[in-house]
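=== RUN LOG ===
request id: a7f3
mode: sequence -> structure
chains: 1
length: 136
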Amino acid sequence: MPVHMIKLCVGANTIEDLLEWRKSHAAPGEPWILRTRMTPKRAPEMIDGGSVYRVFKGVILCRQRIVDIRTVGEGVTARCEVVLDEEVVRVAPTPRRAFQGWRYLEPNDAPPDLAEAGAEEIPPELARELRLLGAW
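=== RESULT ===
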């Protein structure tokens, strides 16, 4: 069973901000790489169908499938590169408290995709408010 990663999206307030940043910073054909300090010990489980769930302003709003995880460098200079699929999938807005770095996210705790929840037509702001009010 795949394990997911959850990470704060710093510097972007919305999914659109994230996509605009990607568009302005990536060269054509360059893979989408999320860099972090620590390499997950459960990397094989994450590559086997896991995703990175992104938290914007205290709410999980989207995910990207993990394609590969690799360690770059050695010793104290070692870093982790998480290669992500280009497709950003919107998920049911789910509140999440702030944390540092990243955390594992078990499949049972992951919010459903908006398409699965039957809400792909609901504007993201409305969906977020409904979720925060406990109405969704």
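=== NOTES ===
DSSP finds four helices and seven strands in the chain.
The mean pLDDT is 88.
=== END ===
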